Amino acid sequence: MPLFGGSTDAASFGKEGIESTCMLAFEIDLTKLEGSMVYHTSRDVSSAIEPRCVEQALNVSVEYVMKKDAEVI
User: How many domains does the chain have?
Assistant: First the structure.
């Protein structure tokens, strides 16, 4: 997470020993963020979302759920 970029809910869950994770889809090179960062700013709106990133996040999520489900069986 970039400096002053905040944190995620996963951090609080982790402190309580709850397995958690976070997915981020933005440039973390601070030299490239100046003026273009939308996360937790007034520019953090749905039109800033790239559909391909959402698709990839869903694919990762499905694979993770399938893996965890296989561990239970």
Answer: 1
14: burial class by Cβ within 10 Å (0-12, 13-18, 19+)? middle
Confidence of residue 3 (pLDDT cuts 50, 70, 90): low
**Residue 49: what are its φ and ψ, rounded to 5°?**
-80, 130
Q: What domain range is 60 assigned to?
A: 9-72
Dump pLDDT digits (tens) for 46-70.
998 889 989 999 999 999 999 999 9
Inter-residue contact 2 to 28 (CB < 8 Å): yes
Pair 40, 4: CB distance under 8 Å:
no
Please return the burial class of 35, using the count of CB atoms within 10 Å of its CB with bins 0-12, 13-18 and 19+.
exposed
